[in-house]
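Quick one:
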Amino acid sequence: MVYFALMKKLPVLIISFIISTSTLFAGGFQINLQGQKQTGMGHAGTGLCLDNASILFNPGALSFLDSLKGIYIGGSFIMPRTTYLDYQSRYVAHPEKHLGTPITFYAVYKFRNSAKWNCGLGIYNPFGSKVQWADDWKGQFLIREIDLKTFFIQPTLSYKVNDKLGIGAGFVYATGSFALRKGVPIEDTLGNYGEGTLKGKASGYGFNAGIYFKATDKFSVGIDYRSQVTVSVNGGSADFSVASSVAEYFPSTTFSTQLRLPSVATIGLGYTPNKKLKLAFDLNYVGWKSYDSLNIDFKENTDKLKDIHSARMYKNSYIFRLGAQYKLSEKWTLRCGTYYDMSPVKAGYLTPETPDADKLGITAGASFNVTKKIHVDVSLLYIESKKRTDTNLETGFSGTYKTKAVVPGVSLEYVF
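Output:
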């Protein structure tokens, strides 16, 4: 039966959503909104020392900060719009509008001006979003709603080897939660479709390490490596509300799995031709090839609810970033940038959960120094993906996807 075939795929699609709800903001399911200054410059900053966000962009640059202490709090406001089209039937659907709010928090401390060591703490959301389609949309048996929240916590140490070289590294603890609903393609006696709901918590570990080299007063180079993070889900709950005639095949149970979030290697160049202008170029190499399959183990199996082994076959990808900063006055600094993000999703693996395509981002930003110690940064990001048509090899679900988004952001920084 079609029902049983789709229900066997239900857990696979749910698990994939744990790591794929934010496909708009970077290839696959990575979000890049971890610094307002950097976002205003195309999210480039590995080869520059701009502020406390170096905790993420390049821990090696952290030891070059001028301030002894500093606290940074920021957030972005994601307003996406995705369109699904089936040209054969002329069917069009949109997810319901929502507002995503990833945050960033950075704290930096240096013991004294002459100290070579700098320590810091970063808390940020590299993955997380909410997607809700109408319950009766064409793909309701693939997905109705997902709500994902993640936090990465990164204590960091940075050491200034000399006036030209800095090194640093941070330990990463990842934690998060999710909930998902999707329709079940069989009706009860009242004509209502069933529903499946999955909930769970996940955690994992990794690291972030970087080198910052200030070759001259005008030219600097940064190298940063964020490791793969293997996120483990243990004891996740799977509950099904289905017609009584098939309820025995889908008991409430638990599941476990491991998901490999990709590594990111970055080389960044910084150029300061004069005291007012800074230019930045970053190249990200994202190790998406690690996401080759999903393997899910249910505590309780039936003839229709079996453990899952599903291919994903992502490929490694690149992101090219370019940005500029201009100091207009002692109070005001302006920024602009752009990036091009190449999708890691191969043909035949596109889904409503990961309607990913190559993307172009255009950015702008500004800083206002309220006082010498209090700084306000703002950014604005516009993203547009290419239109992409595909048929998923596993589910047979076809369609054309097009996504756009506007993402304003703001942060407050206090330096001691």
